[in-house]
Amino acid sequence: MNTYEFFMAHFGRHLIDATGLTPAQSTEKALSSNHAQPKGTASRLQSGWAIVRPGSSSLQLKLAAQGIAYEERTAMEAFIEELRTWDGESPRIFLQFAKAPVPISHLFLTVDRRLIRICSPQGVASFDMNAEPDASATLVQRGLWKRRPQ
Q1: Distance CA 48, CA 54 (A)
Q2: How far apart are CA 33 and CA 28, in angstroms?
Q3: pLDDT digit string (tens) for 84-132?
Q4: What is the DSSP letter of 122?
Q5: Strand, coil or helix: what is 103?
Q6: Which of 26, 57, 70, 91 has its CA 20 to 30 A from that of 5?
Q7: Whole-number Å distance between alpha carbons of 113 and 25
Q8: pLDDT (tens digit, 9 = 90+) per residue, 1-10?
């Protein structure tokens, strides 16, 4: 299963109807479309975070979509808890949303703690969760390192 198939199977299918679309097309549609919120308005995934995992994915932004767990934690809280409890065997996609949609070219699976990938509209922060950040480390890497279990 490639990244787009994984994304759609465990997250995107709860947001859009992908009938007739390729996995890449449906992933792009899910990341860039407006989605219904519980209060009746629509919103694009433009703030917060998501963790795509087999079985049950999590999202900070509350949508009307069924099949996704909605959480109020910060991205750092959610990501560090996921990394702490992750079995290290099944893949994950870590997403941070911003005003611009996350381009599908920035979507990567994390399959190993030695190469964590945090995907966002600005790019992909890639780092080894076991290595102390150096001067070139991203803010997300530094934030996760500070919150890691000792």
Answers
A1: 20
A2: 8
A3: 999 888 999 999 999 999 999 999 999 998 899 999 999 999 999 888 8
A4: T
A5: coil
A6: 70
A7: 29
A8: 899 999 999 9
Q: Give residue for tokens 């919150």.
A: 147
Phi, psi of 86 (to 5 degrees): -65, 135
Which token pair is 40?
A: 């009746």
- 35 membership: H or E segment, kind and range: strand 35-36
Structure-derived torsion over alpha carbons of residues 92, 149, 85, 88, reported in degrees to the nearest 10? 50
- 59: how many CB neighbours lie within 10 A of its CB? 24
Gyration radius (Cα) of the chain, Å = 15
Instruction: Name the DSSP class of 68.
Output: E
118-137 in b/e burial notation, b at 16+ Cβ within 10 A?
Answer: bbbbeeebebebeeebeeeb
Residue with tokens 């934030």: 143
Return the closest-CA partner of residue 145 out of 76, 60, 53. 76
